[in-house]
Amino acid sequence: MGWSVEDCFQTSKTEVGLDQYQVRRYDAWYRHITLAMLAHTYLAVTAAIAPKALAAASSRSPSARSGVSWHT
Questions:
Q1: Are 43 and 15 in contact (CB under 8 A)?
Q2: pLDDT score of 54
Q3: Which of 18, 31, 55, 62 would be 36's cystine partner, CB 3.0–4.6 Å?
Q4: Which has the closest alpha carbon to 26: 16, 36, 37, 34?
């Protein structure tokens, strides 16, 4: 369990800049940490869902796609 937490912090440091702040005021630090952890959560959830979405999209036939076109 301890290693997974350390891996999470290391990933947060490299991917979303968790360690790239200068502490001057508490509220600025708190905002930075909150946004960095929110970004890390978004990336983790997106990575967890992406394989399922790709598998579902590849299993559909081309005719099952929506008829909506965003191009004019």
A1: yes
A2: 63
A3: 18
A4: 34
Residue 72 structure tokens: 């004019």
The Cα–Cα gap between 7 and 40 comes to 12
Distances in whole angstroms, Cα of residue 2 to Cα of each of 5, 6, 7, 9, 26: 5, 6, 9, 11, 27
Each residue's pLDDT tens digit, 52-66: 766 666 665 554 444
- C-alpha 44/C-alpha 18 separation (Å) is 15
- Whether 36 contacts 12, CB under 8 Å: yes
Return d(Cα 17, Cα 37) in angstroms, integer. Answer: 10
